[in-house]
């Protein structure tokens, strides 16, 4: 008799108000208080606590316009502390690795976990265990959404965050419950539906995820391309997006691969990382974005009986950029600090963070930014490299070394918290 295979499920684990939660880990007095985190050079609001959201603080607001208001309303304001956030992110991801052999670190604060099980009811217990373990071991609160597809898992995670009394875990499996939940989600909030498509759909009376899920496949493919069709199929519990195949989210960009053979030497790791950085830079420029921070991670194969080691680190860039030599130089510097001899490494990767478009300049006075902006010749060089590689194949033109020398300047970070987990001089003192 043929054995029936176990159903497949995805769990989306998302850290709640991640940057704010990182600040609260080492400062419990921030609990229950309005807190915001600012972008590079203390420019704009990029993270808000629930209390700050309730007070009307909007994402992307220029901080200088709110400075007096923040003081008057006792809002705690922090500069972005990417070394702290990157390290706590790596710690959260290491905890998640214990729950599934297949994990996709989708962004700095989100991961997909893959499960196969015949006992569907136990998945809610697994979600609760993930949530409690991550919080107990890292201090970061998370919500867990579970479903048959990644798109529905994102919807379930949204329900877990916004539904009081659900204990931060939500599972979508029964058709009736799925339809009811999709009716509560605006079409523009569906994973994979951008603002342009959202406007198009709303103009045609398609206002919710439930409305979208009911549309004929031929119409969807014609108007939203094959990616839109995949989204609709996923909303109907038909898996189309496997692990590590989804487009990166707007707030970060990841490029990483597992090696065909394990690597011991730093030189090979540097070559692999440089290749990934170049690829990430191409994606960044294709989308018209610049990165404000770089994160690097590396790891051995935890399923082998060898000595194990994994680590990650992050640094802010002096100015948002898409210039590959600058990105490469920062990434290689992080890798050299993380590398430990004697291990067989299975994976290395780069994450570009704090992404923004052409208008996302740092909020500084013009004379302070003089000479810091990405130069036209740098943009032209990257355009030529991208054009050649697109025409003649990837890596036809590639970087031979670490790129340009390091620039000597410091970012404006007047409200920077301590790097509690990555700097000896800033370790918290126990009294």
Based on the model shown, name its key terms:
431 residues; alpha+beta; five-stranded mixed β-sheet; four-stranded antiparallel β-sheet; 13 helices; 12 strands; globular
How does this structure look, described?
With 431 residues, this protein is of the alpha+beta class. Helices cover 38% and strands 19% of the residues. It has 13 helices and twelve strands. The chain has helices at residues 18-25, 50-54, 63-72, 82-96, 122-138, 150-162, 175-182, 195-203, 209-213, 217-235, 266-286, 324-338, 376-392; strands spanning 8-15, 35-38, 45-48, 76-79, 103-107, 110-116, 142-147, 169-171, 252-263, 291-300, 310-321, 345-353. The strands form three sheets. Strands 5-6-1-7-8 form a five-stranded mixed sheet. A four-stranded antiparallel sheet has the order 9-12-10-11, sandwiched between helices. Strands 3-2-4 form a three-stranded mixed sheet. Strand 5 and strand 6 (110-116) form a beta hairpin. The longest helix is centred in the middle third of the chain and has 21 residues, at 266-286. The chain is globular. The protein starts with 7 loop residues before the first strand and ends in a 39-residue tail after the last helix. Residues 362-372 and 401-410 have low confidence and may be disordered.
What amount of the residues lies in strands? 15-25%
Overall mean confidence score, pLDDT: 86
User: How many angstroms separate the termini?
Assistant: 66 Å
Main sheet makeup: 5 strands, mixed
């Amino acid at each position: 008799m043929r054995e029936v295979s176990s159903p497949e499920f995805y769990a989306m684990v998302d850290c709640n108000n991640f940057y704010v939660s990182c600040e609260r880990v080492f400062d419990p007095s921030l609990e229950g208080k309005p807190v915001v985190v600012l972008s590079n050079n203390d420019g704009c609001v990029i993270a808000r606590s629930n209390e700050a959201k309730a007070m009307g603080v909007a994402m992307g607001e220029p901080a200088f316009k709110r400075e007096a208001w923040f003081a008057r309303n006792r809002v705690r304001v922090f500069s972005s502390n990417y070394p702290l956030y990157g390290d706590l992110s790596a710690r959260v991801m290491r905890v998640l690795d214990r729950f599934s052999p297949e994990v996709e670190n989708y962004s700095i604060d989100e991961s997909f976990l893959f499960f196969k099980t015949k006992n569907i009811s136990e998945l809610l217990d697994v979600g609760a265990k993930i949530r409690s373990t991550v919080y107990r071991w890292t201090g970061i609160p998370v919500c867990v959404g579970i479903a048959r597809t990644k798109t529905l898992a994102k919807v379930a995670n949204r329900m877990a965050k916004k539904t009081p009394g659900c204990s931060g875990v939500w599972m979508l499996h029964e058709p009736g419950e799925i339809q009811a939940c999709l009716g509560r989600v605006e079409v523009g909030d569906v994973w994979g539906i951008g603002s342009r498509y959202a406007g198009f759909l709303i103009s045609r009376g398609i206002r919710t995820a439930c409305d979208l899920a009911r549309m004929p496949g031929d119409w969807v493919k014609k108007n939203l391309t094959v990616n839109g069709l995949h989204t609709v199929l996923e909303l109907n519990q038909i898996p189309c997006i496997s692990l590590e195949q989804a487009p990166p989210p707007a707030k970060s960009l990841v490029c990483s691969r597992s090696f065909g053979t394990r690597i011991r030497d730093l030189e090979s790791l540097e070559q692999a990382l440089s290749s990934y950085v170049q690829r990430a830079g191409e994606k960044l420029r294709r989308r018209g974005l610049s990165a404000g921070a770089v994160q690097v991670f590396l790891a051995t194969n935890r399923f082998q009986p060898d000595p194990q080691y994994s680590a990650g680190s992050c640094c802010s860039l002096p100015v948002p950029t898409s210039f590959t030599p600058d990105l490469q130089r920062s990434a290689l510097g992080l890798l050299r600090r993380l590398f430990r001899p004697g291990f067989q490494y299975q994976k290395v990767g780069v994450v570009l963070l704090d992404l923004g478009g052409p208008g996302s300049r740092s909020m500084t006075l013009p004379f302070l930014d003089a000479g810091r902006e990405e130069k036209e010749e740098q943009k032209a060089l990257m355009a030529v490299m991208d054009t050649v590689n697109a025409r003649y194949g990837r890596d036809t033109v590639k970087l031979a070394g670490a790129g340009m020398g390091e620039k000597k300047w410091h970012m404006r970070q007047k409200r920077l918290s301590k790097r509690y987990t990555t700097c000896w001089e800033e370790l918290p003192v126990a009294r």
